[in-house]
Design a protein that fits this description.
alpha/beta; Aspartate Aminotransferase, domain 2; 3 domains; 13 strands
Length: 461
């Protein structure tokens, strides 16, 4: 008579697992508990199929509790110390919000607010008009509109042309983030793209023919935010081009991209045209981003003629492109700092731009004195985020001594995987940490992160 083989181990049922974990899971919705239990049972089944030893039900229950705790905390973003020297780092979320914007967003999210209700009349009113009122005051425009990003603002603005032509200089047919190209935006908006001039040289006269014969009803100017041209180049004067367009009844839309509200030249950078300057030069609408040089949340900011802004506001697509209450509140708070005259003190991106090289060197020296195998080095930081390409700011930071390229890469990895994560770069075989992009309040935390990464690399070695 044959011997019966022992039964293969099986994971517990959902009911048994939940009974084992019941005292530790706390008050939770039953359906969520069942879903998490099934996930943990599936993981145990996969372990058994791979030939691993079965876990006790108590161990599986502990894993279930850990899984539920992870769900609660997984939505919290991992803190990162940006020591790359790129002030507006697209992959790190671009501009860090000022504290006033964070407080405003939290207040807007935590309870009811007058979003579309006028407190003076008790009737429906403009959707959170504070941000738009600030934009009007800061730029001298007739009206303003906030969308969820600058690309959305561009789509709405190009829509004013209908099926008519939109004339663009060939040197401005750029590709923006995510592989999106200006010609594609114009065509998807339903307008006809009319290219004039050449890649390197475009003149006001190049625009005259399509404007004169009526095939174009809009002139679109696009700031080449993420690249520069040099050498044998020419671009049309903004005021002359606007005068020509208006003489033929066309609208001028100026996509500034980054859109500085302060004079960048006063900080040692090249001058970046401001929205006010472009409006004074004759643009009917100026578009720019909220999360680059403005230094606030992601948003598309539109300023210009009241009649055109009113048409954008009534466009059916405007509803699909409007930001939520927290973004509107944060945009308004950010813009309010400009009107209060405290932007360089309170808005992180401008605080980083305004920081003196002497201040950065003193911070680097203090950190180098605390961290073994670290020396102070002079560096060059960049603005980033498609703003002021090619422009740099003198900076200081730390260079971490490494014996080989491999060990430098291990150190960079250890810093990135730490808590907090620290992002730097490698130059000349050494890990470089630029302090212009690090909040001074994070210096001590950065020192501890460097020491922990050095310890991890040393033990691994």
């Amino acid at each position: 008579m044959g011997v019966t083989a022992p039964a293969a181990p099986r994971p517990p049922s959902v009911e048994r697992l939940l009974a084992a974990a019941r005292s530790d899971v706390g008050e939770r919705e039953h359906l969520a508990l069942v879903a998490a239990a099934r996930d943990e049972i599936a993981a145990e089944r996969a372990r058994l199929a791979a030939g691993q030893r079965p876990r006790l039900i108590a161990a599986i229950a502990e894993a279930l509790i850990a899984r539920l705790a992870l769900f609660e905390s997984a939505s919290e973003p991992m803190p990162v110390v940006n020591a790359t020297g790129v002030l507006i780092h697209t992959n790190l979320g671009r501009a860090t919000w000022p504290r006033a914007a964070i407080r405003a967003a939290e207040a807007a999210a935590s309870g009811p607010l007058f979003l579309e209700l006028d407190p003076r009349t008790g009737r429906r009113g403009r959707r959170f008009p504070a941000a738009e009122e600030h934009l009007v005051a800061l730029t001298g425009s007739e009206d303003a509109l906030v969308t969820n990003n600058c690309a959305a603002a561009l789509v709405l603005a190009v829509g004013l042309a209908g099926r008519k032509g939109v004339v663009v200089g060939r040197g401005e047919l750029v590709e923006i983030g995510g592989g999106v190209r200006i010609p594609e935006i114009v065509r998807r908006a339903g307008a006809r793209l009319i290219e004039v001039g050449t890649t390197n040289r475009t003149r006001v006269a190049d625009y005259e023919a399509p404007l004169r014969d009526g095939t174009a009803t809009m002139v679109l100017r696009v700031h080449p935010s993420n690249f520069t041209q040099s050498g044998f180049t020419e671009a049309p004067d903004a005021a002359e081009l606007a005068a020509l367009a208006h003489a033929h009844g066309a609208v001028v839309v100026d996509d500034l991209g980054s859109g500085a509200l302060l004079d960048t030249a006063s900080f040692g950078l090249a001058h970046e045209s401001t929205p006010m300057e472009r409006l004074l030069a004759g643009a009917d609408l100026v578009l720019f981003s909220g999360d680059k040089l403005v230094g606030g949340p992601q948003a598309g900011l539109v300023v210009g003629r009241a009649d055109l802004v009113a048409r954008l506001r009534k466009d059916p697509l405007a509803r699909a492109m409007r930001p939520d209450k927290t973004t509107l509140a944060a945009v308004a708070a950010t813009l309010g700092l400009y009107r209060a005259g405290v932007a360089t003190r309170e808005i992180p991106v401008w605080r980083m731009i305004a920081a003196s090289a002497e201040e950065l060197r003193a911070r680097a020296d203090a950190l180098a004195a605390q961290v073994s195998d670290a020396t102070t080095v002079a560096l060059l930081a960049t603005v980033g985020g498609g703003s002021l390409p090619g422009e740099t700011l003198p900076s200081f930071g730390l260079a971490l001594a490494e014996r080989s390229a491999a060990s430098a890469n291990r150190m960079l990895d250890a810093l990135r995987m730490g808590a907090p994560a620290v992002l730097g770069r490698i130059e000349g075989g050494r890990v470089i940490l630029d302090l212009r992009t690090v909040d001074p309040a994070a210096d001590q935390e950065l020192g501890r992160a460097i020491a922990a990464a050095m310890g991890a690399v040393g033990s691994a070695g």
